[in-house]
TrEMBL record, chains A, B:
Organism name: Haloechinothrix halophila YIM 93223
Domain HTH asnC-type: 7-65
Protein name: Transcriptional regulator
One Gene Ontology cellular component annotation held by this UniProt entry: cytosol
Highest taxon in the source lineage: Bacteria
MF terms in GO: sequence-specific DNA binding
Keyword line: DNA-binding, Transcription, Transcription regulation
A Pfam family of this chain: AsnC_trans_reg
Length: 150, 150
DNA sequence: GGTGAAAAGAGGGTTCT
DNA sequence: AGAACCCTCTTTTCACC
């Protein structure tokens, strides 16, 4: 595990805001030269604190505007690893979490439309670890923030 | 609304995989010159299909490893806009959705630890639109995929 | 959408503290 | 160790075709 300081956090903060910012731009904000920023970014990538860089797209625009949250109730005791192995076979799974409470997991589904969502749900319910599901369809996305603030 | 073709989708796909890829690299994959790629990316940014570029960080590594999903039940009829206005005042809100079913919204909370999460939940419940909440604490993240596949 | 040129940035080695 | 400086090579970003 890496020990990070304020400088690293501020660099990450800049990259969260704009992953295509140049090292010089970032350096100007955090008070470092461009090569110094690059070496820190490389180190953060190596250590796994930074996993990579991605584009933020409008799901609606790409035709993936229909979402749902599904509480997963499994048959008997199923390990998180097995749940993961099963749910990652569905491309519509945007995220999956094991949780406290009655449900075993919460699945975030993302699909093109209601029919696509229904099809994904059917395939999810057909997994042999699944006993029952409780779905909540998303009507609108009020807010979505990048993974980590500041 | 913008009409997009396969070329745009492939460019977006490349940027989803690596937002810091050079235009020349992207162009080599999709069969375009670097300036042509840049023109399309600029147009996608202008039109809002591409919202920007961000870093993918390990929340654990930055000390934001504790998450929860909260079903929000509001007093009477509250518009999505008002819900949004209220919940975005909490920095711990990672995402918020209006949903079908009994709850009015689902809030995705992200905090440093259980105590931080508890504090965020208290502030959420203190909002005057909120009648009651049902929280589900995330035990582990099994899977998290970028916003849009392919 | 491609081409070519000027400006900006990346990346590596060296020096300084 | 880590950051700044410098130099070369690549990339970006225009112009124009």
């Amino acid at each position: 595990m890496l020990r990070m300081n304020t400088l690293d956090q501020r660099i990450i903060s800049q990259l969260l805001g704009n992953a295509r910012a140049s090292y010089a731009e970032i350096g100007k904000v955090v008070g470092l030269s461009a090569p110094a920023v690059k070496r820190r970014v490389d180190r953060l990538l190596d250590s796994g604190v930074l996993r990579g860089f991605t584009a933020v797209v409008d799901p609606q625009a790409l035709g993936w505007g229909t979402e749902a949250f599904v509480e997963l109730h499994c048959r008997g005791n199923v390990s998180p690893t097995r749940i993961r192995a099963h749910v990652e076979s569905l491309p519509e799974v945007a995220a999956a979490y094991t949780v406290s409470g009655a449900a075993d997991a919460i699945i975030h589904l993302r699909a093109a439309d209601i029919h696509h969502l229904e099809s994904a749900l059917e395939r999810l319910r057909a997994l042999d670890i699944v006993e029952s599901t409780v779905s909540t369809v998303v009507l609108s996305t009020l807010l979505e923030r990048p993974p980590v603030p500041q």
